[in-house]
Write a structure and sequence with these properties.
Blueprint (H helix, E strand, L loop, with lengths): L3 H32 L1 H14 L8 H9 L3 H10 L7 H6 L2 H6 L13 H13 L12 H10 L5 H4 L15 H14 L3 H42 L3 H10 L1 H15 L11 H18 L10 H14 L2 H15 L2 H18 L1 E2 L5 E2 L11
Antiparallel strand pairs: 1-2
Length: about 375
Amino acid sequence: MFDSSVLNVVIGLIFIFLIYSLFATAVQEAISSILQRRGGTLYRGVVSMLTDTPAQGNLFSRIWAYITSWSVWQWARALIKKPEVITLYQRFYHHPIIKNYGENALYNKPAYLTSENFATILVETIKNLESANEIKPADFKMIQDTIVKYSNLPAELQENFPGWTEPVVAYIDCETFKILNFHLNEAAGDLDVFKARLEKWFDDSMERVSGWYKRNTQTWLFIIGFFLAMALNIDTIQITKYLSRNKEIAAKLADMGTAVASNSHYKDSVITAEILKEVKAQKDSVNTLLGLGWKYTSNHPSDEILTVLKGTFATSWTNFFGIFISAIAISLGAPFWFDLLNKFVNIRASGKTVKSSGSTTKTNKSDDNTDG
């Protein structure tokens, strides 16, 4: 049987990580909304599908490519200079249906796109590369001819298309042509099969894009968690020591965690206003109970910042390490801590049962045990 005091400390820590993970998630969602991260990630995914894979440059060029992929940078570039529509993905995103999926002029990229809509709009976009096709219904040969005509064909494939001449505007890159041509060949002259293959291609690509978004979200949670832990002095090492010495406070935190474990809304990926209000109240209770925070010599912002920086980086290596552990814990996300909290709460509940009088006893020694 686990020592109840140890269980209380563990449940208390898990409860703290859960509350601050939820708070960090709420901040992260607000940032994602402002930066249009979902729409921006989908946009990058479509761009990666409809353009050549960029060559791996040096470290600085990769950092610059990462910076210029941010939505904020795209907004700034759009304000300074309107980009020319000279690529397939630009034509795709200028299609009226895609433009209508945007919320407004600022949030103009859709955050979600079905595979069926992707395939239909891509076929329509390819067809309309040839202006004479705009009023005609698409057929397989029309799509095939247009792809060849407006592609930057690789040198090794040019001899396979004797009538091909280099287009004035090569909307379709070499690698993109190879992918589209592969799907055309596999479709064997059937436009519906070609669309179905484009849908499958989109679904497969979006699994990879979802991985990008999850990794990016976890990075944001770590950054937010680190600054949150710094600002409030959420030092896992010191908190563990404090709870180990103060068993009553550890028991109170464990009871708070037990109450929260029964509320499945704490596991939801979307935080409602009601849950956020509860989280803020729980956070304030934890801060008061543990006395989290820093002691400032004055209320001047510069003094507060200096105190936080000194306390985190200059006082002791254990302070930084404890805050770093808290940041990692927060980055794991609320669903992880909610599931773990329930497991330990069940272990705690199996070790004791609460009588109507409020006292506790071991479950294998019931007061109601009587002979036959």
